[in-house]
């Protein structure tokens, strides 16, 4: 198949793309993290997000790095989906210029996002920034080496609490005021049309000096209709910028966690409309477990359960075979007779095949070929080649041709083999 250049896997796939070429293997399809490697990294938008649970991640923020969204559920009588307001995200990035992101260690429960410094990897042999995106973790985690961390948002800050001490926003976070952080920063955003009424906890692995800034900037808002231009408006900004770079050898970590989505009662996520939610117990839990974080490469273990009935017996009978029962028919097969107090049922699954165990009737071959003519000439659209469409639609049309051709070829070879003598086959 001829592939346009802009549909080939980009640098966002990292070494995975190179391994696929050298080993002649396919890249993952419909992986939960795949959306963040589609297209060119420098052109990614908030549509290139991945659902990490409970957060949604993307890399389309103001600066290079991770943008963390806390989605909410929207439901109707026909659908249930999660959505987010991109303006309410918290960003974890750095001051220095870094390369586009790329992934390593992809798996069913985790993937690692990486950024190198512009000149290459750090002297410690590790990326400048790495995000172990692990599904189910209540924290977003960024590892740093040799760069200055930045925590930023596009919201107005109502309160800033550093290591338990509330700062004055007029003097403690204005135009690059120096702030010393030992362990944590609690960031409370105001509720309203632009801000979210959210509270975030940010933890640092090492004490550090940050420059704190909170200001408003003029920018164009969301356009009223597609293709239109949004009006200029004043938008809030917040930024914590580390003064010194994290050690390349030792490294450092910044972790962020959503604590409360209804801090003052102005949010539409409040348990009771108009009343703030009390999340102090949850905040204590996050503080207690902030030091240890998962890095992926999950190991799955499981155990089996046993079923043993309490039984009684008629005195006139002395049979020791125990209980006899009939298992209920299920998707696993027909009902089986089970005798005894312990049941063990093994089901041998047949190999999965896309082929059909019987040939196409000879009188129908011409009709089948005619029906497949349209699929033979099918050209896959670019969005499918890039992995942006639902692969089943394009793949079904191509697979129907491939498997039909393979099936007919195999059966033709079988007939040739039966009709030829050994001498003729040699």
UniProtKB/TrEMBL annotation:
<dbReference type="GO" id="GO:0042973">
    <property type="term" value="F:glucan endo-1,3-beta-D-glucosidase activity"/>
</dbReference>
<keyword id="KW-0378">Hydrolase</keyword>
<protein>
    <submittedName>
        <fullName>Endo-1,3-beta-glucanase, N-terminal, family GH81</fullName>
        <ecNumber>3.2.1.39</ecNumber>
    </submittedName>
</protein>
<keyword id="KW-0326">Glycosidase</keyword>
<dbReference type="InterPro" id="IPR040451">
    <property type="entry name" value="GH81_N"/>
</dbReference>
<dbReference type="Pfam" id="PF03639">
    <property type="entry name" value="Glyco_hydro_81"/>
</dbReference>
<feature type="domain" description="Glycosyl hydrolase family 81 N-terminal">
    <location>
        <begin position="24"/>
        <end position="160"/>
    </location>
</feature>
<dbReference type="GO" id="GO:0052861">
    <property type="term" value="F:endo-1,3(4)-beta-glucanase activity"/>
</dbReference>
<dbReference type="InterPro" id="IPR005200">
    <property type="entry name" value="Endo-beta-glucanase"/>
</dbReference>
């Amino acid at each position: 198949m001829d592939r346009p250049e802009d549909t080939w896997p980009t640098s966002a796939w990292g070494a995975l793309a190179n391994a696929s070429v050298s080993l002649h293997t396919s890249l993952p399809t419909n992986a939960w993290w795949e959306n963040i490697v589609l297209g060119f990294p420098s052109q990614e938008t908030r549509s290139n997000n991945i659902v990490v649970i409970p957060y949604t991640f993307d890399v389309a923020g103001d600066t290079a790095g991770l943008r963390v969204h806390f989605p909410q559920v929207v439901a109707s009588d026909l659908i249930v989906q999660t959505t987010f307001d991109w303006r309410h995200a918290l960003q974890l990035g750095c001051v220095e210029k870094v390369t586009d992101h790329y992934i390593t260690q992809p798996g069913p429960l985790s993937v690692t996002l990486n950024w190198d410094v512009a000149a290459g990897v750090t002297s410690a042999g590790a990326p400048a920034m790495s995000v172990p995106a692990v599904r189910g973790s209540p924290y977003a985690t960024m590892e740093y080496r040799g760069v200055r961390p930045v925590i930023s948002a596009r919201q107005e800050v109502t309160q800033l609490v550093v290591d338990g001490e509330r700062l004055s926003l007029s003097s403690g976070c204005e135009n690059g005021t120096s702030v010393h952080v030992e362990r944590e920063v609690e960031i409370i955003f105001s509720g309203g049309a632009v801000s979210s009424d959210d509270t975030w906890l940010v933890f640092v692995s090492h004490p550090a000096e940050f420059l704190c800034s909170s200001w408003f900037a003029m920018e164009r808002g969301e356009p009223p209709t597609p293709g239109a231009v949004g009006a200029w408006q004043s938008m809030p900004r917040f930024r914590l910028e580390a003064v010194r770079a994290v050690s390349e050898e030792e490294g450092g970590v910044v972790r962020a966690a959503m604590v409360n989505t209804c801090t003052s009662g102005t949010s539409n996520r409040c348990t009771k409309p108009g009343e703030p939610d009390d999340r102090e117990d949850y905040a204590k839990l996050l503080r207690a477990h902030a030091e240890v974080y998962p890095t992926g490469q999950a190991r799955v273990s499981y155990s089996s359960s046993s079923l043993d009935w309490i039984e009684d017996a008629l005195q006139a009978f002395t049979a020791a075979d125990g209980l006899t029962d009939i298992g209920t028919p299920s998707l696993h097969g027909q009902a089986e007779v089970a005798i005894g107090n312990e049941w063990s049922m093994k089901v041998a699954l047949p190999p999965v095949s896309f082929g059909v165990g019987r040939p196409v009737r000879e009188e129908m071959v011409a009709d089948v070929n005619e029906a497949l003519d349209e699929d033979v000439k099918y050209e896959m659209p670019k969005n499918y080649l890039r992995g942006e469409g639902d692969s089943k639609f394009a793949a079904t049309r191509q697979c129907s041709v491939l498997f039909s051709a393979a099936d007919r070829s195999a059966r033709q070879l079988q007939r040739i083999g039966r009709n030829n003598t050994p001498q003729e086959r040699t």
